[in-house]
Design brief:
Distance between the termini: 48 Å
Helix content: 25-40%
Bound molecules: adenosine monophosphate, magnesium ion
Strand content: 15-25%
CATH superfamily of the largest domain: Fructose-1,6-Bisphosphatase, subunit A, domain 1
Shape: globular
Oligomer: single chain
CATH class of the largest domain: Alpha Beta
Number of domains: 2
Largest sheet: 7 strands, mixed
Number of helices: 9
Length: about 325
């Protein structure tokens, strides 16, 4: 079976990163540091990127990693204490970690898109992580522009969606042509998951960002109204949204630009892992014009606008409705 070695390495690395993130949150050391682009980052974002990049460098030394973070901020004179905090948490996962090694591992994640590369969001949904809500540690493997493997570590999601107060923490694992499985982060047997195609009940609902500024909430509402969705939307941070469609808890994730003509483009690491997890569970992912996501052009999805991720069955109807709404706007 192709990609077994990649899958095992990625599962171990994302699991270690999830342990690091959860330890930091438990110990109340998850505080926001403001990046130059004014978005928040925490010591956990840096620690998770270090842990995963170290594992990938050891197993696949020739593969570039295109990750969200770099160590510039941590290397500032006023950040010495934060850097040693990061190194101490990384040490719990990799025993020979020290501040110098940690900054080098983080910066191993500043590679360029190549015929084969990994893309990493060490914490997708940092705002959710800070709020005590959902977040995802997301790692994808791309070859010749095609997603081959996606791992999402989701420490705050219930292992069994029918038991919302039960054990939390799963890995979603999607491998091209091999389906999608869910594994409890604490260990256990993988279980195959697939989308739901029922056209009523809770499965037939939208899932969208908690942060309304990250999408076009009014247009998303209009689209689902026209589609006849009656259940209220689920609101969740991060790529976890792809996972909840993949296991049948929702039918549609819309991330439409606001305004529609916005020149901003999505980051590859914000969608790679989630997209293959959903596709391999039977869903479909395109941009708002129905174009496949193009992961071959650099760190942004420059050839795509907006995201439509669905259970597959409703995708054509959604595209037609979105087209109608775009025309009317
Ligand atoms: P979500 O929790 O789905 O809203 O996604 C979190 C992601 O939203 C982060 O990884 C950011 O890359 C992205 N993001 C941050 N600000 C914006 C924005 N103004 N518009 C769209 N996406 C954003
Ligand atoms: Mg992100």
């Amino acid at each position: 079976m192709p990609y077994q070695h990649e899958k095992q390495v990625a599962i171990r690395a994302v699991t270690a990163a999830a342990q690091l993130c959860e330890q930091i949150r438990r110990e109340q050391n998850a505080l926001a540091i403001t990046k130059p682009d004014r978005s928040p980052v925490t010591i956990a974002d840096f620690g998770a990127q270090a842990v995963i990049c170290q594992a990938l460098a050891a197993a696949f030394p020739h593969d570039p990693v295109v990750g969200e973070e770099d160590s510039a901020l941590l290397q500032r004179a006023d950040m010495t204490e934060r850097l040693s905090q990061v190194a101490n948490y990384v040490k719990n996962q990799i025993s020979d970690a020290n501040p110098e090694a940690v900054t080098a591992w983080i910066d191993r994640g500043n590679g360029k898109v190549a015929p084969r590369y990994w893309t990493l969001d060490p914490i997708d949904g940092t705002k959710g992580y800070l709020r005590g809500d959902q977040y995802a540690i997301a790692l994808g493997l791309v070859e010749e522009g095609d997603l081959k493997l996606g791992i999402m570590g989701c420490p705050a999601i219930p292992v069994d969606p029918t038991q919302p107060d039960g054990e939390r923490g799963v890995l979603f694992v999607g491998v091209r042509n091999q389906g999608t499985t869910v594994i409890p982060l604490a260990g256990g047997e993988p279980r195959q998951i697939c989308v739901s195609n029922t056209s009523n009940g809770d499965a037939h609902r939208l899932v969208e960002s908690v942060e309304s500024a990250h999408g076009n909430t009014s247009l998303q509402q209009e689209v689902t109204r026209l589609l006849g969705f009656t259940a209220p939307p689920l609101r969740m941070d991060s790529m976890v949204k792809y996972g909840v469609i993949a296991w049948g808890e929702a039918a549609l994730y819309l991330r439409l630009p606001s305004p529609l003509s916005s020149p901003k483009r999505q980051n590859i690491w914000d969608h790679a892992a989630g997209a293959i997890v959903l596709e391999e569970a039977g869903g479909r992912v395109t941009d708002m014009y129905g174009r496949r996501l193009d992961f071959s052009c650099g760190s942004k999805l420059v050839n795509n606008q907006g995201i439509i991720a669905s259970n597959g069955a409703i995708h054509e109807a959604v595209l037609a409705t979105v087209k109608q709404c775009i025309k009317a706007n």
